[in-house]
């Protein structure tokens, strides 16, 4: 996950796993098959959770809290996942989307209707659902993509960075909710 499909070599993978390269080839035959297994494992940790949260029949603020908490819990434990997903997604967007969600993509139109309903009820301000979704995703993803820069600028180590990410589980949700509630 750290180097992506094109950046990883089978020898590097074998070295990291503490086994010989022949064993990696025996079980996976090629880097592409190994990549598929690794991606499916990584995706299975995150994407079903996202789909479930988007489809939940709960108030929007709870959905925002659940999304940020669940997303960050997975990514804190798998910090290379966002960069891995972004790199692979840009290579083949349509194929990647199918690999991520299969036949069960999140129904963002349902979320957009919920946002509109909560606006009509006077719970939230008028907000473009696309911007709300992009704001939540970018606030969760960017710190992991920009981690080296963030650590350098803020003069923090890995432990301090992790502590900040733990705080973001609630900070992001509170920020988003405060920006849209009436």
Automatic annotation (TrEMBL):
Organism: Limnovirga soli
A Pfam family the protein falls into: TetR_C_29
Domain (HTH tetR-type): residue spans on this chain: 1-46
PANTHER family in alphabetical order: HTH-TYPE TRANSCRIPTIONAL REPRESSOR SCO4008, TRANSCRIPTIONAL REPRESSOR
DNA-binding region(s), chain positions: 9-28
PROSITE patterns documented for this protein: HTH_TETR_2
MF-aspect GO terms: DNA binding
InterPro entries, sorted: Homeodomain-like_sf (IPR009057), HTH-type_TetR-like_transc_reg (IPR050109), HTH_TetR (IPR001647), NicS_C (IPR041474), Tet_transcr_reg_TetR-rel_C_sf (IPR036271)
Keyword entries, A-Z: DNA-binding
Organismal lineage: Bacteria, Pseudomonadati, Bacteroidota, Chitinophagia, Chitinophagales
Protein's UniProt name: TetR family transcriptional regulator
């Amino acid at each position: 996950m750290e180097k992506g499909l094109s950046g990883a070599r089978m020898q590097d993978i074998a070295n990291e796993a503490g086994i010989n390269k022949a064993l990696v080839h025996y079980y996976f035959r090629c880097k592409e098959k190994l990549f598929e297994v690794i991606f499916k494992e990584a995706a299975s940790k995150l994407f079903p959770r996202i789909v479930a949260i988007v489809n939940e029949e709960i108030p929007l603020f709870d959905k925002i809290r659940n999304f940020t908490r669940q997303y960050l819990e997975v990514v804190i434990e798998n910090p290379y996942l966002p960069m891995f997903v972004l790199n692979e997604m840009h290579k083949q967007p349509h194929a990647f989307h199918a690999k991520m969600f299969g036949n069960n993509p999140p129904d963002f139109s349902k979320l957009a209707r919920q946002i509109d309903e909560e606006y009509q009820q006077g719970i939230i301000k008028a907000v473009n659902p696309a911007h709300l979704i992009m704001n939540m995703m970018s606030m969760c993803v960017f710190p992991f993509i920009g981690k080296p820069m963030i650590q350098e600028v803020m003069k923090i180590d890995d432990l301090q960075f992790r502590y900040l990410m733990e705080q973001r589980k609630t900070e992001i949700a509170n920020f988003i909710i405060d920006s849209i509630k009436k």
